[in-house]
Design brief:
With 348 residues, this protein is α/β, with parallel strands linked by helices. The chain contains 13 helices and 14 strands.
Length: 348
């Protein structure tokens, strides 16, 4: 099968999309990434933010007779009206977790779950040397997290609060390694915090997972949580808010989900990204319990087999398993009339 795949420029969407492209190619499909190769394709997959879809469609040649799929993610309890207006034109939508699927369930489209590929990215000895130099001093237990200072959904403030509580109560020294992207906040004055920024290769990011002792996230919501699942693939203890898409692979046996309470999305989030509204909910993790979990991990007070169980929990999302799911989705549509699979004739 010849398939056109649109890759987003946003880093997490693009990384996930590239993994799907590799899966498709390993299955023997021909994948086209440039619009000029689209005419010979029977399937069109548009993997991007819904707001980008009208512009993408407007740039593409005639889609008549093609099966058009939108691959989208949303990290809120309700879909924004602008998303609804756009996605209502699609008859098939793929997304990464059952939690997101339930949010999309109000749409007229068929919504299917295609989990993200989870694997251990390759790294070299040079990558390990780079990571050890980046995190600096030795002797302390390292917690790692990938954060975005521009996005309150990642809850950097909550994470820093939990780390401060843990650092002051733990019997052993600990440090928090933060890899920032997009907005780079100056965190140099915070005790015990190692802030990293800039463009890192996949191998360098993998090496940061390797040299760290655990991964921690105080997020308010995740569609999936690529940093969390990658850490588990490396057999690292993961401490994270026990709500949203990361619960596709986390539970109390293979990880440390943090209790939470649901509340309205903050006014700061609604101001920064107006797609979010106060009617939407997200999770407020219990920072004190998160700090206690961090102390337990740093002091070795967790089950000895937790790392093994963490790695085992995400094995079902490896390239071969996700490839089989991809093939199932493609086969399902192959058996349906084209008219039942394609909308967007109006190009939104």
């Amino acid at each position: 099968m010849r398939i056109f795949y649109h890759l987003s420029s946003y880093i997490s969407h693009r990384e996930a999309g590239l993994e799907y492209v590799r899966c498709l190619e390993s299955l023997g499909h021909e994948v086209v990434l440039q619009a000029d190769g689209l005419p010979g394709c029977s399937v069109v997959i548009l993997h991007d933010d819904p707001l980008a879809l009208p512009g993408i469609l407007a740039s593409l040649p005639d889609l008549s007779g093609k099966r058009v799929i939108a691959y989208c993610v949303w990290e809120g309890s309700l879909l924004p009206e602008r998303y609804v207006d756009i996605l209502a034109h699609f008859r098939e939508i793929w997304t990464c977790s059952d939690w997101v699927r339930r949010t999309f369930a109000s749409l007229p489209a068929k919504v299917r779950v295609l989990p993200h590929v989870v694997r251990r990215p390759r790294f070299s000895s040079d990558d390990l040397t780079f990571a050890r130099h980046a995190v600096g001093e030795e002797g302390a237990f390292l917690f790692f997290s990938i954060v975005d200072g521009i996005n309150p959904r990642k809850n950097l403030i909550g994470l820093l609060g939990a780390f401060n509580l843990a650092r002051n109560s733990c019997r052993l020294p600990m440090r928090l390694v933060l890899k920032q992207y997009r907005l780079e906040l100056n965190l140099s004055g915070l005790p015990g915090v190692c802030s990293l920024h800039g463009d890192y290769t996949s191998g360098q990011m993998a090496a940061l997972h390797v040299v760290s002792g655990a991964y921690v996230s105080a997020h308010h919501a995740e569609g999936w949580g690529l940093g969390l699942s990658t850490a588990m693939a490396f057999g690292k203890p993961v401490i994270a808010t026990g709500w949203s898409g990361n619960m596709e692979y986390m539970n109390g046996i293979c990880s440390l989900p943090v209790p939470y309470e649901l509340g309205p999305v903050s006014s700061d989030m609604c101001r920064r990204l107006p797609l979010f509204t106060p009617e939407m909910q997200w999770a407020e993790p219990d920072i004190r319990i998160m700090a206690e979990f961090m102390c337990r991990v740093a002091e070795g007070r967790i089950p000895e087999d937790l790392p093994r169980k963490a790695a085992a929990a995400v094995e079902r999302f490896g390239p071969e398993a996700v490839g089989r799911r991809l093939q199932e989705l493609l086969q399902e549509a192959h058996e349906e009339p084209v008219a039942a699979c394609v909308a967007v004739e109006s190009r939104i």
